[in-house]
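To the team - acetamide complex, inputs and output below.
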Amino acid sequence: MKKKFSKPLITTIGIALLAIGFVACYAPQEEPTDLAATAFIPKPMSVTATAKSFHLNDKTGIEVQNAELEKLGNDLAGKIKAATGLDPVVQVKEESPSYRTIYLSLQPEAELGEEGYQLTIEPERIVLSANRPVGIYYGIQTLLQTLPAPGGPAHPGPFIVPTGTIRDMPRFAYRGVMLDVARHFFSVDEVKQYIDYLAEQKINYLHLHLTDDQGWRIEIKSWPDLTKIGGSLEVGGGPGGFYTQEEFKDLIRYAGDRFITIVPEIDMPGHTNAALASYADLNCDGKARELYTGTEVGFSSLCVPKEITYQFVDDVVREIADLKPGPYFHLGGDESHSTGLPDFIKFVERVRGIVRSHGFIDIGWDETAQTALDDQSIIQLWASADFARKAVEHGTKLIMSPATKTYLDMQYDSLTPLGLHWAAYIEVDQAYEWDPTTLFPGIGAENILGLEFPLWTETVTDLKDLEFMVYPRLLGLSEISWSPKEGRSWAEYKDRLASYIPRLDAQGINYYKSPKVDWPE
Ligand code: ACM
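Output:
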């Protein structure tokens, strides 16, 4: 007898077959699902991959735990749109997140510190949590590196994020770059573009070298000729320029929205020809200097014995303090070869008092460690480990900018069309293969506030030049400042760098194609 199936059984089999068919048609194809294989730069502290995937698509929303995070949610939505063309809706949702969302939340977790974050990617949702909004911001930068770079050709998708958990926090509190806007002026829009780049690498300080022999680049209302005369030229005789105070406040705001703090530098008592050309009174002989558009250093000095010098400094520091850039003020102090040492010491000590009287923490180049120091100052090592060692004896913390490793204006090799080589040629591997805690005997992790990567602009005239000198070295340097030292190796990094490069291509960044790296075709 033919076996007869009951009706309910047939229905069940039918549903099962339908379900199998559905899964066969709509289940994702084989896809990249190894979070640990993603070319993150800087490398996170830990990445645990779980071999599944989250699909970012037009159903994906962004939920934020409270209104404080809404701006970051909108930021993320904008970046996702730029990368994928998707347009996720942002909502505040205090309770547990919905299915298929990216959820941003503040969760106390002491171990992750001020700037750390945890990014948990599951097939159902992505949860990004941190103690503070800045940690959320850094987690967003990491998450975005799992998606196509913005600016490239429209990407058809699907947008697949491999699952796993990233726990991350910075190695150093201070991760800076310096831009010399005095030798060649960079417009507000150019500086903003640089700030956007810096944010991707979790840089948190932008030191602006605002004054030098060739130009004074910030409006000081009580001394208007500083910009009218001193801001009028630049190296090579071009038209120069300066930031009005409103523009400078706009830069501070723009950087702050990206968790980057501006560090203003007024370089003194040397590197001051632009000021000395603007006001005759600032010269010991009472005669204004000629404007200077060359690239020599060490020939200028403010007049240390004259009282008006300190009135001038006080006015400048006060007006800059009123713009509220942040906790630090850089008083320069490098290469003051035309100021005798006793005068130099007298000047720096008095100016440090002025800087502090306006509520700032003072930073000085390493020569300023020849003065009476305490543990409140910061010294920036660029040339002299001896001066820096003198500083740490007083408990003074260091910003490490050894010219032989971190100076972004140094040529990569003798063929580099831009840059200088007085400190070194710095190939991409040499900018990566060193560590600030072992470079100089007597200077260790406990003495170091962080790292800074300066770009002096004697030969660098615009944003394309800047990009060529900065990239790709900044990527490796940012990793030294952010990522754990353990396990760091050029052999591993250089492949990750090559995998990261399409992100620079998509953004149209002009970078140096070092022969040390196997570049993608
Ligand atoms: C410097 O490079 N003169 C600090």
